[in-house]
Write the structure tokens for this entry.
Amino acid sequence: MVYTAIIAMYILLLFGVAISKSRRIKTQEDFMVAGRHVPVMMLVGTLVCTWIGSGSLFGGAGLAFRMGFSQLWMSAGAWVGIVIVYFLAHRVRRIAEFTVPDILEKRYNKWARIFGTFAVIIAYISIAGYQFRGGGRLLDIITNGGISPEVGALITCGVIILFTLLAGMVSIVSIDVFNGIVMIVSVVLAVPFALSAAGSWSGVTEAIPADHFAVFGSRNWIWAVGVFFPTFFLLLGESSIYQKFFSAESERAARRAVIGMIIGVVVIETLLAAVSVIGSAIHWNSPAFVDAAATAAAGGVLVHDAPTTETIILQVAFENLPVIMGALLLSGGVAIILSTGNTFLMVPATNLTRDIYQRFIRPDAGDRRIILFQRISIVVLGIVALLLATQFTTILAMAFTAYTMVGAGITPALLAAFLWRRTTTAGGVSSIVAGMSVTALITIVNWFHQRSHGEPFLETDYIIIPAATASIFALVLVSLLTAKPPPEKWEPFYAKAEQAAAE
């Protein structure tokens, strides 16, 4: 009851902030990119909250339970990606568009916009969907089963839709300031308390296998590559991050914010992994986390239930920490779910509005009509995301599939727009189509294979390898086989010497 009351008060506080900000919304620029007036510190907060979502809180946590600190290979892909983004942030802000498909059409053509929009919508409603599943699991835990995961997902979906409807990007950026603070404070304090519950560090090392502290865990470098590149490619093509760069008050603010993002993401993801590993030591032999049928089939070798291990951080908060500390960590979980869910509903709704409705259907639409269409899109996409979330066994599988759709479908063509003058329109469009097609094909085959054989045809840990390979191969080969693009295609994406000097 205490946990429920504290979390309810926290959500009401965030609603108050969102409602107050909703009065500022006058134009589509206000709703989509917060009027392009977001200062550095607020931008840092919202960038961190954008990246730290249920993929980290649940998918990454479950992987850390089962694999140990080698889970950080998954996180490290994003860390390297952020470093590269640092050198692009000011150039992205200079273009001053609204969406990533805006950039794709500017550099290539309308087909790049259309295919890019579909890739973003498919991937981002998947990511929003597993925020709903995460919220359902959280409500199930704090109510001791009083609210089922299914009903909890429905409640989470409604809350996130309402938050996003209120003030768009303005409300997202504003509440992310509070969410970011809660996230950082809660995970920093959780580590020593969890360690105490485990009986010190020696208690942790004695309770779990030694390979939990090995570089590649119980796997090898190929597995590390498989989990590294989905987050690496996703972050480099992450539409919500680019959309928030468009919200920055200046090019300099966008670039400085990336430094804060690097620090925040590395600290939070490392501490989340630590809490998960410590939690695995506490619950390694707990019946709730053991897959009894798989353990029996393995001749008594302990096998853990993957979906249950994804709740380890919340279970530690609820069962093993003092009440106040547990409530703070659970509030951090709420912050992670809400902040990411808001953003990943906002971005595909912006794409649908800006890149389909405004670009091809009603180019003369006024601000009020555009905002109304986007709000309707948020509701529809939220419902679709909730339905899509039921088609995956684990949040991690859903995350890797969504990451690959963006990482292979958009990232190579997007990076080439800024980094390779020789990229042609045909090369960029071919890259997007190849990455999307291979990802979709593997996902469909896995869906049927899972239902007929009980396991996927290709583990989701590895789908980035064939998908990204196809995308990059198509980009390079087709570009080299077609005529060089005219200078007006690539010049807007490169800083001129006098612009660089002025900065």
Summary: The radius of gyration is 22 Å. The longest helix spans residues 149-198. Residues 2-394 form a domain with the Sodium/glucose cotransporter fold (CATH 1.20.1730.10). DSSP finds 24 helices and no strands in the chain.
